[in-house]
Amino acid sequence: MKILSRKISSSAIAKAVILALALLFLYLPIMTLVVYSFNESKMVTVWTEFSFKWYGVLVQDSAIIHALVISLTIAVLAAASSVVIGTMAAFVMVRIHHFTGETSFMLFMTAPMVLPEVITGLALLLLYVTLGGFIPVFADRGILAIWIAHVTFCSAYATVVIRSRFIELDTSIEEAAKDLGAGPLKVFFAVMLPALMPAEVAAFMLSFTMSMDDLVITSFIAGPEYTTLPMQIFSSIRRGLSPEINALASIIIFVASIGTFIGWLSMVRKQKRIAADAAKAQAAAKLERENAILGAIRP
Amino acid sequence: MPITALNVSSTLARRKLGRFLTKRSRREKIRDIMRHENTWREKLVILVPYLWMLLFFLMPFLIIFKISLSVTEIAIPPYSPLVTFEEGAMQIILHLENYTFILTDEEGTYLRSYLKSIEVASFSTIFCLIIGYPIAWALSKCRPATRNIMFMLLIMPSWTSFVVRIYAWMALLKKDGLINDVLMALGIIDSPIHMLQTDFAVYVGIVYCYLPYMVLPLFTALLKVDYSLIEAAYDLGCRPVKTFFSVLVPQTKSGIIAGSMLVFIPALGEYVIPELLGGKSSILIGRILWQEFFNNRNWPLASAVAIMMLTILAIPIVIFFKVQRKQMEAASA
């Protein structure tokens, strides 16, 4: 018994140490970045005194504000469209299964997630240049071109998120709705979509983040007037470290953390609700069983 | 229509019937599906994502392949056409120069960078696996409430910008950066170590950015592990190391493969990390492609480099796809 308890505690210590080291590795770089954003000095690595100076400089940097506006516009558009395409693709994967071209469909919806970005970026640019010869919209390489590129890789991620929820859906409710005379569209919007909503929101958030974050693909396709936020940051980092970028990075980290936290909170709440429902169902089943037994004993 | 007793009872009957229908045996269901003709609505739902990917994902690759067979020209667009009409004769000229140039370049820059990329991607994958496995294990062994919090903390950094995360490491690894400062203050080293612009920095960057992609599939696989088998192995006198390799590893195989592919494939073509953290020795193929395209404006050569990269990646991509599909089928069964 003694050996067993020692074994448990040693594995608990190992667990705690591993997780602590992992968190240290993940958060130390980000934290130092945030700390030095409040440094008054122009030197990023030499601490002088606490100040909000670089945040002030940042707000007045028109290039960065312009890039931010472009990035936000594209991210909202791309995330919304990716969710629509992702929902369709998830529906196809979970509910239709068998059709001609199924394997290539699956490949198309998986490959954009893993393919090196330099390849996807170059491929899309060459497509735009080729299409630009016939359709002038593509030659411009503006918001539309970037939007298409982002939807292409974001919808693959959206599909994964929505599909994992789609599998869990209870088909008997859909069949009941169908039996009661609801058409396929009505069934989708009244029964499936509400049940899918948490996944749709998660897919939107993920696509939005991926779009806001993309540097390489966008660098290939964006025309000169369409510099997105990551491109702006990248070109300024190449020139060296600057406290202004620290301030910008801190804001990005802050916003992303809040977003992740809210997403996580709603996920945990949902899990709790499901667990509570399961417990209730179990209690009800138990009661029913007991009643049945009692009924069998006393006719 | 007013609700009548008849109505209610018929709905109840229908619901019961519906439940009965969903419980039909699997074989019957499959037979049903095979017989099933797709309706026009289903076809439409298939077509929208399918056409999108066909047009914006498959077609670009065909175009890359086409342009890799032409040569660079001073024109708009800057490459020679494959098909030309001259005096009524149609000529199709397929240039293989780009490929022969890559393979027989005297300085060997291209072949060397391919090998270097494979080396860096492989080692990064191994490092991620070695670091990620214990993390995934520790996460899977936590109590559900703690696990939720830890899970969020582990993935939170990956929701912040990629460039920002690399930037953070630039500041840490610099000659007068925090790591050197701390080591010097502790008296461990006398003069700062040169860390930025080395392969070491590239590995740190790749592991830092891709670690979550390794941890997530491993964590999912570890949650399903049957730990009674491990106890059985211990009871039968198996030592921990052997138990790990003969019991735990086979059970988490799908997670290991998926995670490794999720790191290896994108790492092979990585551009940003070697560009910002790496030095002259870390000329990876992603950087070569970028330079050919942006600095030398040699689009055909850049396309050929991309096609060769895709050829190398074909096998890992197929493996990843197969694992993904197997999991997908297991989940929907």
Any key phrases for this structure?
heterodimer, A: 299 residues, mainly alpha, B: 333 residues, MetI-like fold, two-stranded antiparallel sheet, 15 helices, 2% strand, globular
Could you walk me through the main structural features you see in this protein, from its secondary elements to its overall organization?
- The complex is a heterodimer of chains A (299) and B (333).
- Chain A is built from twelve helices and no strands.
- Chain A has a domain at 60-246: Orthogonal Bundle (MetI-like fold), CATH 1.10.3720.
- Helix content of chain A is 82%, strand content 0%.
- The relative contact order of chain A is 0.11.
- The longest helix of chain A has 55 residues, at 243-297.
- Chain A starts with a helix and ends with a helix.
- By secondary structure, chain A is mainly alpha-helical.
- Chain B is an all-alpha fold.
- Chain B has a domain at 100-332: MetI-like fold (Orthogonal Bundle), CATH 1.10.3720.
- Helices cover 74% and strands 2% of the residues of chain B.
- Residues 1-12 of chain B have low confidence and may be disordered.
- At the A-B interface, helix 1, helix 3, helix 4, helix 5 and helix 7 of A face helix 1, helix 3, helix 5, helix 6 and helix 7 of B.
Write down the oligomeric state.
Answer: heterodimer
CATH architecture descriptor of the domain at 100-332 in chain B: Orthogonal Bundle
Q: Radius of gyration of chain A in whole Å, from Cα? A: 26 Å
Main interface: chain pair and counts: A-B, 96 and 100 residues
The H/E string of chain A reads HHHHHHHHHHHH
In DSSP terms (H or I, runs of 4 or more residues), the helix count of chain A works out at 12
**CATH class of the domain at 60-246 in chain A, anyone?**
Mainly Alpha
Tell me what portion of residues of chain A adopts beta-strand conformation.
Answer: under 5%
Structural class of chain A: mainly alpha
Named CATH topology of the domain at 100-332 in chain B: MetI-like fold
The main sheet of chain A comes to: none
Weakly predicted, low-confidence segments of chain B:
1-12
Look at the structure and name the CATH superfamily of the domain at 60-246 in chain A. MetI-like
Arithmetic mean of pLDDT of chain A? 86
CATH topology of the domain at 60-246 in chain A: MetI-like fold
